Amino acid sequence: MELNKLLSTIDTELDQSINRLMELLRIPSISTNPQYSPDCLKAAEWLVKELNTIGFSASVRKTQGHPMVVAHSSSEKPQLLFYGHYDVQPVDPVEAWNHHPFEPTILPNDSKGVIQARGSSDDKGQLMTFIEACRYWKKQTGQLPQGISILIEGEEESASPSLIPFLKSNKDELKAELALICDTGLFASKVPAIITQLRGLVAMEFEITAPNKDLHSGLYGGLAVNPLNILGKIIANLHDQNGTITIPDFYEGVSELTPERKVEWDNLQFDSSDFLGEVGLLHPAGEKTKSPLEQLWSRPTLDVNGIKGGYSGDGFKTVIPSKASAKISCRLVGNQDPEKIIKNIKEFVISHLPKDCQIQFIDHGAAKACEMPLTHPMFATVKKSLSEEFSTNCVFAGCGASIPIAGFFQDILGMNSLLTGFSKENDNIHSPNEKYDIDSFHKGIRSWARVLYYVHQSN
Amino acid sequence: MELNKLLSTIDTELDQSINRLMELLRIPSISTNPQYSPDCLKAAEWLVKELNTIGFSASVRKTQGHPMVVAHSSSEKPQLLFYGHYDVQPVDPVEAWNHHPFEPTILPNDSKGVIQARGSSDDKGQLMTFIEACRYWKKQTGQLPQGISILIEGEEESASPSLIPFLKSNKDELKAELALICDTGLFASKVPAIITQLRGLVAMEFEITAPNKDLHSGLYGGLAVNPLNILGKIIANLHDQNGTITIPDFYEGVSELTPERKVEWDNLQFDSSDFLGEVGLLHPAGEKTKSPLEQLWSRPTLDVNGIKGGYSGDGFKTVIPSKASAKISCRLVGNQDPEKIIKNIKEFVISHLPKDCQIQFIDHGAAKACEMPLTHPMFATVKKSLSEEFSTNCVFAGCGASIPIAGFFQDILGMNSLLTGFSKENDNIHSPNEKYDIDSFHKGIRSWARVLYYVHQSN
What is the pTM of this model? Predict the structure, then answer.
């Protein structure tokens, strides 16, 4: 087995790899919106076909929600379980896209160009880096690397409701020494990174009903309670003037940064005005007493993600609406208890309701934060591989995002996870014009090839 | 000329009158939404055709916006100018309607039934009461009542932008002794009423932009300013805990109720829990120190009429949106200065913006409040006619709504207005399932017939 030969095949056949990714990107597998369920199935079937083609024994596995894709490179118990997700975020506001989100387009940049499409970076482009690495390995050696299993889910963007039951009922099949989760990014868009801590997530929405129908503000204004005013007061009271979240006991289980971690992070010399400058901002807006990296990685947050109520079309309507609603989510850290926080938020909201108002809640999932133990030798292997590929030292970083799967692997399979990935801060994840740099895709495939090579050596 | 004969013709031919109203109701003349402009023109042309058919010299008159309908019963200077509007409110949420809003449907009630359709009560059903009265007058006497002019506009629901220039450039043609405005309702749905004071209106919207694109709350949450949180704080601060509006100088020009007016209103024995009970509420939510009728008729208000921002579709999206917007409007009283209030609201909103936020305002019109002088003899004539028709004493009442036209007639034509109408509190004006009782329509036609009769007598 010769690494350089493997890498040069990857280089020369990059265009074919890109074409395969484009095929997958054309499937609008939006998991949060029921009308796209058939497309989620289609994406799963496409992956199974590809995986079988290159020698995996792969199958679509039914769940209560969108199906799972499971694949094994060999019959024995898996050494490594690779995880990714084929579902993508909704695309609205669709008018903000330069190209149709599901007609992947290659646009120029200062390097090899970028692929613009919903899911290009989160997470189809990333999961394909691993599959392509396996493909070229097979091509060169005649067989797949041994002891590799793959799990690709279709509900990551909608809080993975089917994952826990699925893991529970397939423990023996899926439990490996370590999980490789490829759904994160480079540090500051330049330096390869292994993620050592993730924030948890709770997501919910509530709808306030005041009058039993929309009212004419001329006939009722002044006398009838307006649910939009109530909603405003609730939102306004979620944070105090220091950016501290006011939900009772919200910070229970949140611990301060360890001195070691603090030193590590200070050494990263993170520049928040660079980071925020990318999106037209300048000033950190979180807890005034915490550093920007703490606000991003190690502190919990509460954000309103959507509001709705009254007339918001063209022109004007002097209406006092019957209903007003908001979607809110929290990023959790340390030992914050998601269930307890959901309960406290509901009580907090209810405590702000005046007479005559009804309220309805919808839960959209909950996951604890988690911290990765760095004990498994793979951490050294991956660090070495990525440092080589990027010709710069791969760092251990935090991450503000929530990838509940890592916690589920820990809780249900007793399996640790190693998180790494190749996306960049400016990839517009969850936003219009999501893109994945061809350089990220290329280096990603090459990085996994290196990882497979060193694992092969050590076996 | 025999009144009873006229009234009985109205009774026997009521079905034809209803059919003509239904025709007009089938035209979706929504003025606030540009896509319905052709329908607004269509409604104007329909009215001109009808008015010419019964002997008026009527024409469609172009404006910068939707056209006016002007008609004259005779060549001499008009004695009375009748006013109504053919435009209607938007229909959303359309799914809340029992029947298509522009397929008028007759539904049973405890009397002659109701006509359900957008515009049935506001204002197509009402303006047709007058036109139908003229029709039957002509039928019986062979000619139209003399000295009657009609002005029907198509922008009442979008703050009448073209009206002022139109009145200015057609002063001589339109100035009459008195205007008859038929766009108001019965008192407590039972007692005929002449409206002696109207609230003014300012309407505007603003859009806050924070990041220059939608962001992933996992990657930016905690650090990036969220415009939805800012919007919430602005809305929350518009009122204090006593329901008092906090915009600086907002109450400038608001006078307390005169003792006489107070006695009049107390005698009306208004029951706010009945009034609010109709819409599923119980508790007055306005200024704690004011009576319910004051909150409705003589006090200014500020309401949020619509909000928008982030993801509000099915499922969930952990986004920090780039933009958040709100539509707000105020009902004005006394000598409140609309322009000054718009200026103060804008300054108030801007003063609540943190760093990194941009804001954009859109004005949606402004009108002063106005009080009617009761000097013209027509007030006695109309009071007598309506009291006879409803067999109960017609009252002088206030009104929470804003009918800027009365102010424009006063300012531009130096002409006073008499406001009356036959709609009911439960007509769902501006709401889904708007309706007009056939009894309102019938009594309305008969009431105008009586008015025309007594005017004829006195001439």
Answer: 0.75
